[in-house]
Amino acid sequence: QKEVEQNSGPLSVPEGAIASLNCTYSDRGSQSFFWYRQYSGKSPELIMSIYSNGDKEDGRFTAQLNKASQYVSLLIRDSQPSDSATYLCAVNIEGYSTLTFGKGTMLLVSP
Amino acid sequence: ETGVTQTPRHLVMGMTNKKSLKCEQHLGHNAMYWYKQSAKKPLELMFVYSLEERVENNSVPSRFSPECPNSSHLFLHLHTLQPEDSALYLCASSQGALAGGVEQFFGPGTRLTVL
Fold first, then answer.
1. Mean pLDDT per segment of 10 residues, for chain A of length 111 residues?
2. I need a surface site. Which of A5, A53, A109, B110 has the fewest CB within 10 A?
């Protein structure tokens, strides 16, 4: 059973702070990791992908992957109210076509 | 806009109706997916098509019937649905499917309500 776990939140941070979103996965064969942002009533939007251990930075977003601990995180620096959304973690196993999604963490950034 | 469109955006149907959801991708991708998103649940993969062939059917009830006439279009035919089928139905596409590790891009979804 492939599982992806996320704290459902809400995670509340003040504007300008760093938001840290975490995700753990059960299958050690997992190879590819994705973060999607989903605004209420909208569809998921891909914001980050990471394939190897370490950090990957894109603007205010940093994805961190630790395969030994089966842990992937997303840091959002200088959080803005427009970052308020649900963040979905998705994991893919090499050789398989499917993504397994977590339930998502709701982030609330207060002005 | 991600280059994946879905119609209709909203659909209300009775349990005896037959309807179809349509998805079109303008990204030149060769794989397409149907997902179901219900409240308080993770996204559930329903079907995967790669190069117009169904490569995955995730134990979905037969009242859902997918069709992929070409690599740009995907349909989900619905008949005799149940109220618990009410959900957001999302289409996605990617370049490559069986190799894994590919980024999937989602359409805006169809909000389905079954009365």
1. 86 97 91 94 94 95 96 97 96 74 95 92
2. A53
